[in-house]
Amino acid sequence: MFDGSTKTTRTIVLTHGAGAAMDSPFMTTIAVGLAERGNRIVRFEFPYMRARRIDGKRKPPNSAAALMNHWRAVIKTLGPA
Fold first, then answer.
1. β-bridge partners, 12
2. Which among 22, 29, 33, 76 has most CB atoms closer than 10 A?
């Protein structure tokens, strides 16, 4: 999920905590506020939260190693600044 201008040189990557999704009111407020200040915002969900969105069942977070691997994959997909 992207917010803000694609013409900026600043990109901030945000993700959710254990309790709420990337499009929760809190995350949306933060993303929009940062975007209004000239930043491009990228939001993503970890696999356990994506699964919850699909089946509606709360799940514990993935392991720390899996979460870090997912972060790295997102950064790699976005490419260099």
1. 41
2. 22
Per-residue tokens: 53: 């969105």
Domain ranges of the chain: 2-78
| pLDDT tens by residue, 4-34 | 888 888 899 999 988 888 999 999 999 999 9
Taking the C-alpha atoms of residue 42 and residue 35, their distance in angstroms, rounded to an integer, is: 10
Residue in this structure with the two tokens 């917010």, named with its chain if needed: 3
| Residue 11 bridge partners (DSSP) | 40
Three-state secondary-structure class, residue 13: strand
Residues 32-48 have pLDDT tens digits of 999 999 999 999 999 99
Greater pLDDT, 19 or 49: 49
Task: Give the pair of three-digit tokens for residue 76.
Answer: 């790699």
Q: Assign 32 to helix, strand or coil.
A: helix
